[in-house]
Specification:
The complex is a heterodimer of chains A (555) and B (99). By secondary structure, chain A is α+β, with helices and mostly antiparallel strands. In chain A, 40% of the residues lie in helices and 17% in strands. In chain A, α1 runs antiparallel to α2 and α1 packs antiparallel against α4. Chain A is globular and about 65 Å long. Helices cover 24% and strands 29% of the residues of chain B. Chain B is built from three helices and five strands; from the N terminus they run βββαββαα. Chain B has a five-stranded antiparallel β-sheet, sandwiched between helices. Classes of the chains: A alpha+beta (555), B alpha+beta (99). At the A-B interface, α14 of A face α2 of B.
């Protein structure tokens, strides 16, 4: 993992001291709220519905145990004993007090963490495949480049007042677990003729105008990557729209200006910028890469793993859903679900965070990851430790066997916390999970991603959910629209709206009808919800959602 | 024809705590909606809002929120204000925990 240099520590200490002084000046009246707001936002401090909210970056979703313990400390000391992992691999604290925030930031700096650029019209936390460095299907570990991008984008003087925010995601595997096609820039590490390079997607995004990213450059070599990205952001920064914040993201530029025209401008800019990159970035990258060297994997027998798997059905169910293939023999990637049935997706208590930190330290080469799906990953676990890990997760309420299933729901905070929300998300997620747990159907249903957003900004990724749910305010009442057929992987697709929305009371039965219809419609258990939807189209699913229309039509 | 004026309260966020606060008839700031002054006159509402806007050292973002008269004081007419009055629905946190 990346270790902060003296420069990093000094930069962060100075930045935190600046913010501490800004908070004092706001409190003593020297700064108005209008003056203070952009300063607090640049340091991750929002004002939400009931309280302030501090959003802390977890760069490319990677943490060590000391960092996780510090996140637990923040939750306990300055919040209400829990934190919320988000779809951008950040953690949010929902109840900090203004005076405490500088102390929270200093505590984060002790373990090399910060909240810089988790808001504002800047380049946000760079997200990555949560299995990076561990996945069997990986071409290369994307985290060294992600760290280079973090350093390049942090406090980059040219990119502090852009038309709008800018999000970059990177994957090093062909199976895209980082939703790269739904980002302003998506990077895919590819290998061509034995050479590693980057496919650059541009103009993906969700929000009110969801778009799938398009290939801006099919293959960029490593030494050209940073100048190429800088050229891209610079072109958008100059010609991107600033007259309307809803049309300011780079996806609108791609749409209105055209991909070819944008590519031509970027090429021109790249030619100018490339000369300024004299190799320092590559030297730095080489240094960063040494810090991401793979751990010394154990060579050992898998011990009691198989016996436990054969005899303990609870362990077997958990292994079947929550383990993924690791690149090292005898190892597995463990995804720890934060989504016990009825729990708030993405929430972890301080005590749970400490259990995860302990497990990472004892059994996981001291590494943890946060996924955009709001779960926690132990990326490097030897299988002989899995029975004990499972037992300890179970004792902490963290052993739910539901990864990729219907109750593994992404949900934004919605109107329970968010000042922008138009409806609640969390209770809908809780009720769906609880209902399908009662029905004991989710393992039978199989892979099915439900994603819920509490407003059109789509933090809950509803556009790319197999089933998406969007909460709206319709004449003062919460109303939920369903989209179908979205996909968040390398074949990313935006879901199609199924029809009129449902009330909060009617949305759960509607989802139930939809899923039961799928079970009737699928060819066999191997045909997933998405595959069935793609085979049959929306009509039979709409018929299940709106039976009254069918009966009217039949009369 | 102009829309008829609907009753309001002045509400804002407390600068230090981040809590939702309401303006009372005796110029205090209360965490409890039922303590708030229900304003039924448009001109008076603007004056009360100005009063709140004159306190940037303790408040953020004062505004007039629609309310209805209830047996125990003002009551929200929109679910957003109902959440601000109570707290989130997934935990017993926020104002509901104090009650």
């Amino acid at each position: 993992m990346y270790q902060y240099s003296e420069f990093d520590r000094a930069f962060l200490a100075e930045r935190n001291a600046q913010f501490r002084a800004q908070v004092e000046r706001r409190i003593d009246g020297s700064l108005t709220e209008d003056e203070f707001k952009p300063l607090r936002l640049m340091n991750g401090l929002y004002l939400q519905l009931h309280a302030y909210m501090l959003r802390v970056a977890i760069p490319y979703g990677t943490l060590n145990s000391a960092q996780m313990r510090q996140l637990a400390l923040l939750a306990e000391k300055w919040d209400k004993g829990y934190g919320h992992f988000t779809t951008r691999q950040n953690i949010q604290y929902n109840w900090p007090k203004l005076r405490d925030v500088p102390d929270m930031l200093d505590a984060l700096a002790e373990v090399g963490m910060h909240a810089i650029q988790t808001s504002g019209n800047t380049i946000r936390n760079v997200t990555a495949d949560h299995f990076a460095g561990a996945a069997a299907d990986e071409v290369a570990d994307p985290r060294p480049v992600a760290e280079l991008l973090r350093q390049w984008s942090t406090d980059h003087p040219e990119f502090q007042f852009m038309p709008r925010k800018f999000k970059i995601a990177i994957t090093g595997a062909p199976n895209d677990r980082a939703v790269t096609a739904a980002h302003d820039i998506g990077l895919r590490i590819v290998e061509r003729d034995g050479q590693i390079g980057y496919q650059v997607l541009v103009g993906g995004g969700m929000g009110r105008t969801p778009m799938i990213g398009k290939v801006l450059a099919d293959f960029i070599t490593g030494d050209n990557l940073l100048p190429y990205l800088e050229a891209t952001v610079a072109v958008w920064n100059v010609i991107g729209r600033r007259d309307n914040k809803y049309k300011a993201r780079i996806k609108i530029l791609v749409h209105e200006f055209g991909l070819e025209n944008l590519r031509a401008e970027v090429e021109k800019e790249f030619a100018l910028r490339k000369a300024q990159f004299t190799g320092t970035d590559q030297a730095l990258l080489a240094q960063i890469e040494t810090m991401f060297a793979a751990p010394a994997f154990d060579v050992a027998d898998t011990g009691g793993f198989q016996a436990q798997y054969d005899t303990d059905p609870v362990f077997r169910a958990w292994s079947d859903t929550n383990l993924s293939e690791h690149r090292a023999p005898g190892y597995a990637i463990v995804t720890v679900s934060t989504k016990a049935h009825g729990a708030t997706p993405g929430d972890a208590t301080a005590e749970q965070m400490r259990v995860l930190a302990d497990l990472a330290q004892e059994f996981g080469h001291d590494e943890l990851r946060i996924s955009h799906e709001q779960n926690v990953i132990l990326p490097h676990v030897h299988k002989r430790h899995l029975p004990e890990i499972h037992a300890r997760l179970k004792a902490a309420g963290l052993a739910t066997a539901n990864i990729g299933l219907i109750s593994d729901i992404i949900a934004c905070p919605g109107m329970d916390y968010c000042a922008l929300a138009t409806a609640r998300s969390i209770p809908i997620a809780q009720e769906i999970a609880t209902r399908f747990d009662e029905l004991k159907l989710e393992h039978d249903v199989g892979p099915l991603q439900i994603k819920i957003s509490g407003c059109i900004n789509a933090c809950g990724h509803h556009h790319v959910g197999h089933i998406g749910i969007l909460g709206l305010d319709r004449a003062g009442v919460e109303n939920y629209q369903i989209t179908l057929g979205g996909s968040a992987n390398e074949h990313a697709a935006v879901g199609e709206r199924a029809g009129p929305g449902f009330s909060a009371d009617d949305i759960i039965p509607a989802i139930e009808r939809l899923v039961l219809a799928y079970i009737d419609l699928r060819e066999d258990r191997e045909e997933t919800f998405l595959a069935t939807y793609r085979r049959l189209g929306a009509a039979p699913f709409k018929a299940a959602l709106y039976p009254e229309k069918q009966s009217i039509a039949a009369e | 024809m102009p829309k008829p004026f609907t009753p309001k309260v002045v509400t804002a966020t407390d600068l230090l705590e981040g809590d939702v606060v309401y303006l009372t008839a005796d110029d205090q700031w209360s965490r409890t909606l039922s303590d708030a002054e229900l304003i039924e006159d448009e001109a008076h509402a603007q004056l009360r809002l100005l009063f709140a806007e004159g306190q940037p050292e303790k408040l953020i973002g004062p505004y007039l929120a629609d309310m209805a008269a209830g047996p125990d004081g003002p009551e929200p007419v929109h679910f957003r204000e109902a959440f601000r009055r109570t707290g989130p629905s997934n935990y017993n946190h926020g104002k509901q925990a104090v009650v």
